[in-house]
Amino acid sequence: MSVFVIFALNGLIFASWAARIPAAAESLGIGAGGVGLLLLFSAVGSVCSLPLAGSVAQRIGTAGAVRVGGLTTSAASLIIAASLFWPNVPLAAGGLLLFGAGIGLWDVAMNLEGAEVERHLRRTVMPKFHAAFSGGAFIGAMIGAGLSAAGISLSLHLLGILTLATVLVLAVPRNFLPDPVPAHDDGGTQAAAPSRFAAWKEGRTLLIGVVVLGAALTEGAANDWVAKATVDGLGSSETAGALMFGIFVAAMTVTRWFGARLIDRLGRVPALRICMSASLAGLLLFVLAPNLLLAAVGAVFWGIGAALGFPMGMSAAGEDPAHAASRVSVVSTIGYMAFFVGPPVLGFVGELWGVRNALLLVGAAMLLSILFAPAAAERDKDRAVSAAS
């Protein structure tokens, strides 16, 4: 239960900020270009912290890394709140850089703990943890919408959220599993810790990263462009665009909650191929649909297919306790690079081809995930036999 809470809290905090970006822009007196530049600081913070997160978790444990990531995020929220109360764009940029770094460290640490729980249970639960993240994000967005409607300032909103985060990240990780005992060599002495960069030279880890890259780009492109593509491509209202995005998120969240059974029944590789194929079919239907109804059906399949790739990649990277921290860090970095960089690139292409047509580029990443899916196959013999039976 503690891991569910940490995943949900991470999603709630992220969405609490994201849902009220327009309010931040108004407080700071900046337009769309300024908002884009500010968000880039958050992305840079995450991308910089992700490669180091595995080493931090190895040194202080997953519970300690979650606490450091959570407290960093809370401190960043305090800085952002101050930058909005006394409007200051450079201060907001610094706060968002720290915010992204804290979220990135927290993300890797909670995925490491999720992988450890899976090893103990000998069944797939990672998708449910990611469903908790999605559910927390939905709650965070609804809280943001409600407080906005009530006229509560974003500064006060962030103060409340950081107080909640501080309390929970200090208390909840106490219930995490004990950190794995360090491996020993045949002579009984503790084996040397692998270099923090060693996992970047492992072929299987990099191929898992490619699988996650396709899944992350699939999800990130939908998050940023489904609503816009619905409005521009089908001539629909902004309300219809928001509803289309809601359909995608709902399909993804439900699949994450119930998809663990599919993975345990079929194994990771068949489940990955089925999911990514469904996502590809849904993307094509969404892009080519002549009306809202068919586009909505496409969004459902797109969400179903996008749901399990990232959690399965985290499970595959985290199977070996001795190398889990560095491998999860590598795979997370590759995935989040696609998540952050891919959607802006699609935006530039969309200027030339139209947003809906630009989304076809995501299909190429999906094909890569399908092609390299065997890299994520179970290495745990007991779980592999269980999945095949």
Automatic annotation (TrEMBL):
Give GO MF terms, alphabetically.
transmembrane transporter activity
Q: Which PROSITE patterns match?
A: MFS (PS50850)
Give residue ranges for domain Major facilitator superfamily (MFS) profile.
1-381
User: Key word Transmembrane present in the record?
Assistant: yes
The subcellular localization recorded is: Cell membrane
Which Gene Ontology CC terms are recorded? plasma membrane
Which keywords fit this entry according to its UniProt record? Answer: Membrane, Transmembrane, Transmembrane helix
User: Where are the membrane-spanning stretches?
Assistant: 28-53, 65-85, 91-109, 129-148, 154-172, 205-222, 242-259, 328-346, 358-377
Q: Where does it mainly reside?
A: membrane
What InterPro entries does its record include? MFS, MFS_dom, MFS_trans_sf, MFS_Transporter
What residue range is the signal peptide? none
Membrane topology category: Multi-pass membrane protein
Stated name of the protein: MFS transporter
